[in-house]
Amino acid sequence: MAPQGHGFAATFSPKNYRHYFTGNRKLYERLAELRPNFPKSDFACITVNFGRRTRTYIRTDAKNTAHGMCAVTALGSFNPKLGGHLVLWDLKVLMEYPPGCTILLPSALLRHSNTGAQAHETRYSVTQYTAGGIWRWLDGGGCSIELSELNGSQKWLTPVSCFCSAFPI
C-alpha cells in the first residue's frame, strides 16, 4: 500500500511529493525515535478501518493537511458494482472503488464518503495521511503555533505553492 501511495504522489502531485519527502526527513531528524509506518511511506499517519463493512459518512478531514493528499486503499471481499463506492460530493462524482484500489484525495478540501458493502461482504480501508499539525510544528521550527507566530513565521506560503492542476499552465 505505501509504495502505491508513494508512486501515485510522485507522479500525480510532484510538488506535494517533494514537500512531504523533505518534511518527513525533517520530522525524523528532529524526532529520531519515530519511524515510518511502511518503507517508502510519504505519510506520517495511518488509520486502519477494520469494521466488517466499513463505510464512511459525508465529511472533510479538517485536521488533515489542506494542501496535501491522503492515500486511501479499499480492502476486503465485496462487489464494487453493488457497494463500496467512493462519493466525491463537491465534484458530484460516484465511482466504483474495488478492493485493492488506492486513490489520492485532498480529503481536507473535498467532501467525501463511501457506500457500504452488501450484508454478506467485507470492506475495510486503510488511509495514509499527514496531519496539518505536524506541518505547523515543522514549519514553526519545532515550536507551538503560538511561538511560531511570535517569531513571524511565513512558511505557510510554501504549502500553497504545492497545489497543482491536471493541466499545468
Walkthrough of the structure:
The protein is an alpha+beta fold. It has a single domain, classed as Double-stranded beta-helix (4-Layer Sandwich), CATH 3.60.130.30. The chain is built from five helices and eight strands, in the order ααββββββββααα. It has helices spanning 2-12, 14-30, 132-139, 145-150, 157-160; strands spanning 45-49, 56-59, 70-77, 86-88, 93-95, 102-105, 112-114, 122-129. The strands form two sheets. The chain has a four-stranded antiparallel β-sheet, covered by helices on one side. It has a four-stranded antiparallel β-sheet with strand order 2-7-4-5, with no helix packed on it. The longest helix is centred in the N-terminal third of the chain and has 17 residues, at 14-30. The mean pLDDT is 82.
